[in-house]
Amino acid sequence: MVKYPNGTFAAFRKSVGDPTFKKNQKSNNYRKNISFSDRGMTLEQMINESNKFYRLKEIAVVHKKPTPIQIVKVDYPKRSRAVIKEAYFRQESTTDYNGVYNGYYLDFEAKETKNKTSFPLKNFHEHQIVHLTECLKQKGICFTIIGFTSLNRYFVTPANMIAKAWWTQNKSSVTLTEIEEWSVEIESGFQPTLPYLEAVDYFIADRKSKNGKYKI
Amino acid sequence: MVKYPNGTFAAFRKSVGDPTFKKNQKSNNYRKNISFSDRGMTLEQMINESNKFYRLKEIAVVHKKPTPIQIVKVDYPKRSRAVIKEAYFRQESTTDYNGVYNGYYLDFEAKETKNKTSFPLKNFHEHQIVHLTECLKQKGICFTIIGFTSLNRYFVTPANMIAKAWWTQNKSSVTLTEIEEWSVEIESGFQPTLPYLEAVDYFIADRKSKNGKYKI
Fold first, then answer.
1. What pLDDT does residue A56 have?
2. How far apart are CA A190 and CA A184, in angstroms?
3. Which of the 8 DSSP states describes residue A108?
4. ipTM strictly over 0.90?
5. What average pLDDT does the segment B117-130 reach?
6. Least Cα separation, residue B195 to chain A (angstroms)
7. Which of A151, A192, B176, B202 could form a disulfide with A50 if both were Cys (CB 3.0 to 4.6 A apart)?
8. Structure confidence at residue B39 (pLDDT)
9. Any idea where this protein resides (chains A, B) (predicted)?
10. Which of B65, B84, B132, B216 to mutate to test the interface with A (most CBs of A within 10 A)?
């Protein structure tokens, strides 16, 4: 029996009681159209799996932050756990991921697009750009992971490049060519699914060199 | 008119629609029994205010992580924002606070006790101890802020000391004397409310010295 990596992950999601599991489960036919290398995962799933790998191997400790929720009403039924009956989504004030890698503070946001030639900047919110800039000032290693899912290409782009483009008037997107120029491209693989720390190593080496390209 | 600092904060909580605001609001009489220096805040409130101060002054970027929630059912009523109608609290896998300070990764948990002579170790959960230890291996600055609220005394204790005590069999608490010995004590003040970065500076200097006391 061939055990597809994707099957393993689906089983994992089922076991942890992911409520979106059924909704996102598609017929086996969809496999025909996609590359196996990314295992049919979303970018977020790929990063979460990579973080798990990095943590278990004691390479880095990076977690996705929970979505901030304003809780208004909670029920405490007998013999069972508390149920939140009324709550609202709050505005996030940071990025989705942060953590520590060999003494370095990492902070990043991940975004994907189905576009093939450019990345729309409206995908980033102002609070994310502000937060990344604040962390850069504190000498964090700050970046974005941009996935062109239709092309199966993934880029680790320094936050200062994205911030600069984001604040440029009348600039609504960055071209794939610009992203290629500014970023370290990484290939999706098996373990880790998305080896983004390879790009971080580049940025750290770049920071130490006198004529760094990325100025991260 | 005297504008009490506590009043300002209450107004802030009211303005952001904090659902616990009314519940925690007490008559003015309670002020007689407490020191004004901590402004009647909980330890968490003191740390959140300090983080706000540090961020605005561009000294450090530290945020409290949201409580992780498993969302099951969301309603999208017309003309108003999404309402979460069924959700559950999930087990946290990290500590409450992390961030970056001048290139250093900070990670900590804050706990308070009304005890006057010892701190019960059951206040820490295994996942918090494990996470702090993982971050220590990645050279993060990891610690706990312990508040003896009855004494109005606050200690910044290196995570390795707490982890060592936590894993010691039959040790259910650490004495105030032990905490005094292991920690940097900080005094609550005005801005920031709890200047815990003073302790972090000690730890950083200690790490650089050959015969460091804290071995953080």
1. 97
2. 19
3. E
4. no
5. 96
6. 18
7. A192
8. 56
9. Cytoplasm
10. B84
Residue B51 contacts A where some CB pair is shorter than 8 Å: no
- In the chain, the amino acid numbered A173 is S
**% of chain A residues with pLDDT over 90:** 73
Q: Is A130 on the interface with B (CB under 8 A)?
A: no
Q: Chain B residue closest to A56 (CA)? A: B134
- Write down the pLDDT at residue B54: 98
Non-local (6+) Cβ contacts of B182 within 8 A are: B157, B158, B161, B214
B109 pLDDT band (50/70/90 cuts)?
A: very high
Cα A14 from Cα A8, distance rounded (Å): 10
Structure tokens at B207: 């790490």
Per the CB < 8 A criterion, the answer to whether A93 and A60 are in contact is: no
Q: For residue B156, what pLDDT is reported? A: 98
Chain A 59-118, residues with CB within 8 Å of chain B CB atoms = 60-61, 63, 65-72, 81-90, 93-94, 98-105, 107
Chain A residues in contact with B71 (beta carbon < 8 A): 19, 67, 69
CB contact under 8 A, B100 and A55: no
Please give the residue that has the higher pLDDT: either A15 or A72. A72
The tokens for A45 are 């799933």
C-alpha span between B71 and B89 (Å, rounded): 9
Q: Which domains does chain A have, with CATH numbers?
A: 44-67+93-208 (3.40.1350.10)
pLDDT tens digits along B16-52: 444 444 444 444 444 444 444 555 789 999 999 999 9
Q: What is the pLDDT of residue A214?
A: 75
Task: Give B66's contacts in chain A (Cβ within 8 Å).
Answer: 65-69, 90
CB contact under 8 A, A63 and B94: yes
Contact of B91 with B135, CB cutoff 8 Å? no
Average pLDDT of the residues in A176-203: 96
Tell me: pLDDT of A12 over 90: no
Instruction: Report d(CA B185, CA B163) in Å as an integer.
Output: 19
> Which H or E run includes B143?
strand B141-148
A211 touches chain B (CB under 8 A): no
Residues of A in contact with B72 (CB under 8 A): 19
Q: How far apart are CA A61 and CA A104, in angstroms?
A: 11
Q: Å from B61 to nearest chain A CA?
A: 6
Return all residues near B37 (Cβ < 8 A) that are at least 6 apart. Answer: B152, B187, B188, B189
